[in-house]
Amino acid sequence: MKDDLVFRVVGKLLIPFTLLFAIYVQFFGDFGPGGGFQAGVIIAAAIIFYALIHGLETTRRIMPDWVVEAMLASGVLIYAGVGVAGLLLGGNYLDYNVLDHDAVLGQHRGIFWVEVGVATTVSSVMVKIYYMFASRGGSEGEP
Amino acid sequence: MIGHFTYIITVFLMVAGLFIVIARSNLIKKLIGLSIFQTSVYLLYITPGKLVGGTAPIISPNYTIYSNPLPHVLILTAIVVGVATLALGLALTVRIREAYDTIEEDEILACDENPTTAPDTEQSA
Amino acid sequence: MAITVFTLARTRKLFSVVVLSGIYSFLMATVLVALDAVDVAMTEASVGAGISTVLLLAALSLCRSEEAKPVYKPWLPLAVSVTTGALLIYGAMGLPNFGDADAPMHRNVVPRYMQNEVEVPNVVTAVLASFRGYDTLGETTVVFTAGVGLIALLRRRKNNEPAKPSRQDSI
Q1: Has this prediction a pTM greater than 0.80?
Q2: Is C129 an 8 Å CB contact of chain A?
């Protein structure tokens, strides 16, 4: 599909804006609709769009398998890490009030990191699912 | 009765999803029916939360009445878990297709009952 | 949406079924916006009409794309579904009216959440990440487990033999 001019031009226009919109949705989840899940899914949609246009091999060179799998695990670890940080600083598990001197700022910091963890995991799972399905069809004959 | 019309719509969608799951034997269609069932459950949770004259639950000084945010939180989790389940179901369907060469439920059951007529496979994975 | 679902149940070409399910997700997202659930609508639109359709098409490309003709008329499932529907509607008559502000769901915990002690304007994000943070941790773990399960199911062998098992009779 990468020989088709329309797809390449539209891809070049749309994919950077989609990624920017995903980052916007992630960080403005506090003030408008949005948050970690939506941002993760939009990032995955942009990467899948790129993979549809330019092929799986090119996408694998940009985002190799080990990066995706590392992101998968580190998202959950970031989330649990915020909880453990609450423990280490003297409060309960997943207590955000102790993360900063001011309780409200501690809440903001905790919510920020938690959403980053969620977005990482969700986006890498969606991309990994696409990789698995698309690479499975290599040696299958179409019935 | 008029006040409950949303429940009637929700139950209709739920029953339609249920019908697809139990009446069709194609595995992918069953999975899609299951996801229709799940979306009708989302409607079931969110419709009682809406207050007439309210707005989205984002606190701003211009509005005083907000819709109930608690079902939104639960349904957000449910949507993501639903897509994870769909992905796993589709992966299982692909493996079944490789093992039995069909995705119709009756043919799979027939393959299982008489293994000499339609050869199925020994898994070495 | 009822028309979409009805057509979906009767279509046999699976590609049209997948496209119809994408249309259904978009209509559901529109209805959710009309119900003031903007976060849920954004998630449903991106997940249901985006990722779900891509996954279904990817799985469809690995399987046959037409459903076999049904062998017998589905009278029993139809009867079961209609009976279940009737019972559910009878049960739903006891639930509160649409738009009722006095329902019990508005009275227990929600006034405390809405007092906004974390000073984050989007109450849904605040509840999701701070008041009910454990549930979100569990959900992230579920998504992670789905990814791991998928890797376990669909990984290829490293030594280049095709993962499709050879056909032999089971002894």
Answers
A1: yes
A2: yes
